[in-house]
Amino acid sequence: MKIKLLPLAIGAAIAMPGVAMADVNFYGKINLAYGMSDVDYAYDFDIEDGTIPPASVDVTSSDRWELTSYNSRFGVKGSEDINDNLKAIYQIEWGVDIDGGSADMSHRDRFVGLEGGFGTFKAGKFDTPLKKAQGKIDLFGDTTGDIKYIFAGENRINNILQYSSPEMGGLQINFAFAPGEEYESDTNDDPKDGPADSFSASVTFNADNIYAAIAHDSEVTSDVRFYIDSGFNIQDFSAPMDTTRLVGVFDLDAIQLGAMYQVAETSDADVDGDFEQSGFLLSGSFKIDAIKLKAQYGMTTLEDNDGGEEVDSELFAVGADYILSKQTNLYAQFTTVGYEFDVDGGEEQTSDKFDLGIVHKF
Description:
Layout: H1 5-15, E1 24-42, E2 59-69, E3 72-83, E4 86-96, E5 106-116, E6 119-127, H2 129-132, E7 156-164, E8 171-178, E9 198-207, E10 210-228, E11 234-251, E12 255-266, E13 275-288, E14 291-304, E15 310-323, E16 328-343, E17 346-361
Antiparallel strand pairs: 1-2, 1-3, 1-17, 3-4, 4-5, 5-6, 6-7, 7-8, 8-9, 9-10, 10-11, 11-12, 12-13, 13-14, 14-15, 15-16, 16-17
């Protein structure tokens, strides 16, 4: 007989709040949207061996209506006071598809650590300091307007250990590293078997109305959109990358303005190709009572220094949130992500999405 332990644990925690819930916070976020997705392809094929659709295929377009769960999640987190100067901290989070998709119960942030006057140390699986350095600049995160669709460096990685200093006048230092956990074998004579085969670090400043950050990844594997396959699909090029990110955000009660600049390049000599990416992002929002208007634009260029191929990517998003309460808001938004290719057989692809959605946090 199968027993679902998580519902039982949650039920027990609710039944005994004085004991089980003393140091536990059960939380979650549901983001569900109904909208139309439209994808346009414009290809100029000139390949004779038949491995890619024939030259007669010039333009393809398709659209559909869909209900989408955008990174909905739930989790538990909390702490235990060990003494006046030290406490244990923990978090375990799962992603769920509210619309009944196939990626139900995916792994998100999860860690255990210690926190005190020395700062915070934690280990597990979670976002790198470089990804977290974006702060609040991405106004369309967890939707089709997320900056991850054009920028390298948006990574949540396994086997990561991180130290974060205490805040000092708004200044904080974060340093994380991860072992590769590879063994030497007949097919791998140069394994990543060291104590820190990749690292990520950031310095952030957050005080008054200013947020600023500089961050760097070294040999952190990242996905980058680069080429099309014979089924008209954009593929992710995944490789260890060295990435540097600069972020600045000016935030008043009613107005927020932000800018980000980033450069990245492949860092592993074993990777087939020498790639470089550079790009920028601008975002802004304006709040009027319960309505928040927002927009952002980003652009990146990815170059293959060996083959001379190039992909130019653009992201544009505009939308409005209607804040019903501290936990619930409605939104409407339009996003477009375009890729222009300078590779064999391809020219460009554009994906547009209009959404009406609701976000509820608990």
